[in-house]
Write a sequence for this structure.
């Protein structure tokens, strides 16, 4: 474990102040209830007391003139609410609090009664007691079903979420996958500030509860246009408890996909064990609590090198090699992964009404011979070291019963430690990536290896104050005011290899079937081979680190007008000041985000509620905003090798050096000998002269945003609830790259002295669009005390023409029709239609049954899932280089562009998303068993996923489905004519089917095959 000054500073602050407790940024919950008599009239002066294992001591309040009471800053869980008044019956109600939500119990006190009445309020009620569209999942529920247990898996349990987008990341309410906000104990745990996925830093047994907000989110939260995934860790308590767990996994417990069956893939039979321990309890009862978790994974399962593709006889003859070349299939290699995590929290009371919490998480993740990127040779397997840590320090104070304050500081650091060799004179020979001509498989050296570390950090400080106001005629107001300052920082240089060099069109040969590293053959080109390309990827402008700062202020009023009407009125202000990795300004903009909602309770008893809301969300500036900076990004230069066939890389470097226009030393020191004047560079700015700037940033560049309208209905009944919401979102102010003729604006566009076309990065809502329409339904039905049904369903459409993210780069700007429009602004270039990731139906039903016997306790669960196949498109590349006019294109000589390109994209039939993956059904079963022996409990948890081994290819946009359409080369006017299948384009025979990628079968093309896992452990 690495020492860290921040955590020691946090602990010192904790010890100086006396202790701490969780409370901030809706990491806590509230009870806002009312008391009435038997006639339904408000009862003032009732003493309300709340108690819970989750709180230190008890708290009391007295109902106001209109019979209301409010308790804030409560850790989620079950609370006993007791109402007492002289001459009236005592009423006790058990209230379940969801994370970040407000429960609204209504107590009725009858006169002249001496016995207590126990009224149980279902723990799911907070989902209904809010105008937000939210789903809550606590640890008990997650442990009782067959499911993954990390933050991402919990998010995918909620309505409105899907994993059908780029890279299989989570999309919420139709947003791009990086446009969600993940919070852990109040701090952002978006992993790398780029792709926006959730970090795995927290140990699953340490998570107390997760809430997923998909619409009508309070103004207290911002910097996203998708959804909010909010998790809280456990705090301990007044009694000691803990879990020892061994999670057992085995590749041999995973079924095979149809493609693997065809190739007879065999899985290694080796158990991988993740051991974890959680332990919490009091240091001082009702004063100081702690919770500590640790886990360790040691895996030595073999990795896999992808199968090779042998040279054809024609290729071999061109290269002067024997015909009949062979190549090995998938080969196992020694691989290992070491992962260690530690999470802890100290919770305590400084003084009555004043509390503090310090939470810390640390993870180290080291991999050797990681083959996840599909290497062809062992030398291309990756060495990964990724340490990560997160810290949050929270203070909360009850100044008066009506006035509370909260303060939060958080920071998170993630580092991709340099895995390449240190720079030396031989690096170009020992650390140059080689790329197979036949299918792109890499060997020779690690791809994307970097000699330097890359950092992805964020920090935030936030202050919030809450005030509860009761009026005689206008109901009550729960006001919240807050300010926040958050900074995301990224520093990294995107090296393509440790040496900066890469060879393409290399021909690998094997001497034996099991050879792990092929011999590289470099050829000068022939009738059936291509000349080898030497590519140099220099980082010309080193990164000095980006600084994306957002200052925010918000006000929110939860107004309870009477028993029938309540409102949520919120307004958020966000101001962006951002500089890119070269220190240049990216944006200085601001935006207001109103959030308003109205709820009508038909009879004032919570059984029938109707809700309408309007909200705007403004994203934090994302990584696409850095496109104006070349800092940290590679440029490239390309040479072709036309020398004799050789297997000696040094010969290739020598030949290129001798035949490169007199730059004999360019392959050793590419900056020498006037290299810049002769090398074909792109995406480069080698001069501070503004005349050479390639991309100009619109000085008013604003954050992308979304606008939402929602109407909803919910009903509560004796054994459960049902909640349905209709949601419509429009996304706008997309980042777009514009490149027009110089006459459009000579101060921005035109050609630089270096011979590169200038472009503009700006917001664009006229050429690009993205909308989301959905019905999100969730419900719960308690069949009996030991049998529960939980479910949700989403019908949705994601429509538009803006994707805005790629598999390898996350956020990107739109450029389809605004980049060289004379060549690209035709209807079929970027048509409106169903976007990647669009899924019409997603349904999940969870059945949970508890059975107690004298031999132990059993918990059985069955999960049924249904998902429509995701939408995908058919498009082909038009190459108009040889005859632009035949394709309806202007001649290059008629325009003033430097390099407008020679290809464009044409969507078949001018449509987007007209094809769909296969519909998926899946049944998962869980069997949990526990046996109590004195003060400990032995347990076993068996999860069986996809028990019927169904094999739908449901996610075609993950790169493992064949979507190939080829142009025949026959010209047509792309602006005015409609191409004909078979004449102008043809579908690949395997279009729409799962494919093999880079020589290895694509498991990702299919739903998860039949898999089982087993956890064993002890609870105490």
């Amino acid at each position: 474990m690495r020492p860290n000054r921040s955590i020691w500073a946090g602990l010192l602050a904790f010890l100086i102040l006396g202790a701490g407790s969780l409370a901030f940024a809706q990491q806590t919950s509230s009870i806002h209830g009312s008391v009435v008599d038997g006639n339904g009239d408000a009862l003032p002066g009732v003493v309300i007391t709340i108690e819970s294992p989750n709180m230190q001591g008890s708290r009391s309040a007295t109902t106001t003139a209109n019979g209301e009471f409010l308790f804030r800053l409560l850790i989620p869980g079950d609370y006993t609410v007791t109402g007492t008044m002289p001459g009236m019956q005592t009423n006790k109600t058990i209230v379940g609090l969801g994370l970040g939500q407000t429960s609204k119990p209504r107590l009725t006190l009858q006169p002249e009664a001496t016995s207590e009445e126990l009224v149980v309020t279902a723990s799911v009620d907070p989902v209904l007691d809010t105008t937000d569209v939210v789903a809550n999942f606590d640890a008990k529920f997650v442990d009782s079903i067959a499911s993954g247990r990390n933050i991402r898996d919990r998010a995918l349990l909620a309505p409105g979420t899907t994993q059908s987008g780029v890279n299989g990341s989570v999309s919420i309410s139709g947003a791009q996958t990086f446009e969600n906000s993940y919070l852990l104990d109040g701090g952002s745990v978006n992993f790398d500030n780029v792709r926006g996925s959730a970090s795995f830093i927290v140990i699953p047994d340490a998570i107390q509860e997760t809430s997923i907000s998909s619409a009508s989110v309070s103004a207290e939260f911002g910097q996203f246009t998708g959804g909010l995934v909010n998790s809280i860790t456990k705090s301990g308590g007044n009694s000691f408890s803990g879990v020892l767990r061994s999670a057992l996994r085995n590749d041999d417990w995973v079924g095979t996909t149809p493609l693997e069956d065809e190739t007879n893939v065999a899985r290694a039979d080796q158990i991988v064990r993740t051991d974890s321990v959680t332990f919490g309890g009091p240091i001082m009862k009702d004063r100081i609590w702690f919770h500590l978790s640790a886990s360790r994974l040691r895996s030595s399962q073999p990795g896999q090198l992808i199968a090779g593709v042998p040279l054809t006889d024609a290729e071999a003859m061109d290269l002067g090699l024997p015909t009949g070349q062979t190549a090995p299939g998938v080969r196992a290699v020694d691989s290992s992964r070491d992962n260690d995590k530690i999470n802890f929290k100290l919770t305590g009371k400084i003084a009555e009404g004043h509390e503090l919490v310090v939470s810390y998480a640390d993870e180290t993740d080291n991999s050797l011979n990681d083959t996840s990127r599909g290497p062809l040779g062992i030398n291309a397997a990756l060495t990964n070291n990724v340490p990560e840590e997160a810290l949050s320090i929270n203070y909360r104070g009850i100044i008066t019963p009506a006035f509370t304050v909260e303060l939060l500081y958080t920071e998170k650091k993630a580092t991709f430690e340099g895995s390449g060799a240190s720079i030396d004179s031989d690096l170009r020979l020992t650390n140059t990536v080689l790329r197979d001509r036949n299918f792109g498989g890499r060997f020779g050296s690690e791809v994307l290896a970097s000699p330097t570390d890359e950092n992805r950090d964020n920090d935030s400080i936030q202050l919030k104050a809450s005030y509860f106001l009761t009026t005689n005629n206008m109901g009550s107001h729960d006001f919240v005011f807050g300010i926040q300052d958050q900074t995301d920082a990224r520093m990294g240089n995107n090296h393509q290899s440790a040496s900066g060099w890469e060879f393409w069109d290399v021909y690998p040969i094997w001497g034996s079937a099991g050879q792990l590293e092929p011999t590289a053959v470099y050829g000068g080109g022939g009738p059936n081979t291509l000349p080898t390309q030497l590519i140099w990827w220099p980082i010309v402008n080193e990164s000095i680190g980006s600084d994306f700062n957002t200052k925010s202020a918000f006000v929110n009023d939860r107004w309870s007008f009477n028993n029938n009407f309540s409102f949520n009125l919120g307004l958020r202000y966000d101001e962006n000041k951002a500089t890119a990795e070269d220190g240049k300004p990216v944006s200085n903009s601001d935006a207001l985000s109103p959030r308003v909602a109205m709820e009508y309770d038909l009879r004032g008893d919570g059984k029938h509620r109707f809700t309408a809301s309007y909200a705007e969300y403004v994203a934090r500036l994302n990584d696409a905003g850095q496109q104006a900076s070349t800092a940290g990004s590679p440029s490239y230069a390309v040479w072709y090798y036309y020398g004799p066939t050789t297997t000696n890389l040094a010969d290739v470097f020598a030949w290129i050096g001798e035949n490169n226009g007199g730059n004999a030393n360019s392959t050793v020191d590419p900056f020498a000998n006037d290299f810049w004047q002769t090398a074909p560079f792109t995406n480069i700015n080698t001069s501070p002269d503004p005349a050479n700037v390639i991309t100009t940033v619109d000085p008013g560049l604003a954050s992308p945003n979304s606008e939402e309208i929602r109407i909803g209905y919910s009903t509560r009944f004796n054994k459960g609830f049902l909640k349905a919401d209709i949601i419509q979102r429009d996304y706008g102010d997309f980042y777009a790259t514009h490149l027009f003729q110089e006459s459009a604006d000579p101060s921005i566009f035109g050609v630089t002295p270096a011979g590169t076309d200038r472009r503009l990065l700006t917001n664009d809502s006229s050429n690009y669009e993205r909308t989301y329409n959905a019905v999100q339904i969730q419900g719960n039905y308690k069949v009996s005390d030991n049998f529960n049904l939980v479910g949700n369903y989403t019908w949705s459409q994601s429509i538009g023409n803006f994707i805005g993210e790629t598999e390898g780069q996350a956020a990107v700007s739109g450029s389809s029709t605004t980049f060289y429009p004379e060549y690209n602004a035709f209807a079929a270039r970027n048509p409106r239609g169903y976007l990647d990731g669009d899924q019409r139906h997603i349904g999940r039903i969870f059945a949970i049954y508890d059975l107690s016997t004298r031999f132990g306790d059993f918990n059985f669960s069955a999960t049924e899932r249904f998902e429509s196949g995701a939408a995908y498109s058919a498009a082909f590349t038009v190459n108009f280089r040889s005859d632009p006019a035949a394709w309806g294109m202007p001649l290059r000589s008629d325009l003033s562009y430097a390099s407008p390109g020679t290809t464009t994209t044409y969507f078949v039939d001018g449509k987007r998303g007209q094809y769909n993956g296969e519909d998926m059904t899946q049944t998962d079963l869980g069997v949990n068993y526990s046996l109590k022996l004195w003060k400990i409990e032995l347990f076993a948890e068996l999860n069986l996923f996809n028990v019927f081994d169904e094999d739908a290819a449901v996610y075609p946009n993950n790169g493992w489905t064949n979507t190939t359409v080829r142009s025949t080369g026959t010209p047509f006017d792309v602006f005015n004519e409609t191409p004909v299948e078979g004449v102008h384009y043809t579908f690949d025979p395997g279009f729409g089917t799962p494919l093999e990628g880079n020589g290895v079968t694509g498991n990702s093309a299919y739903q998860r095959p039949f898999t089982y896992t087993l956890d064993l452990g002890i609870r105490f």
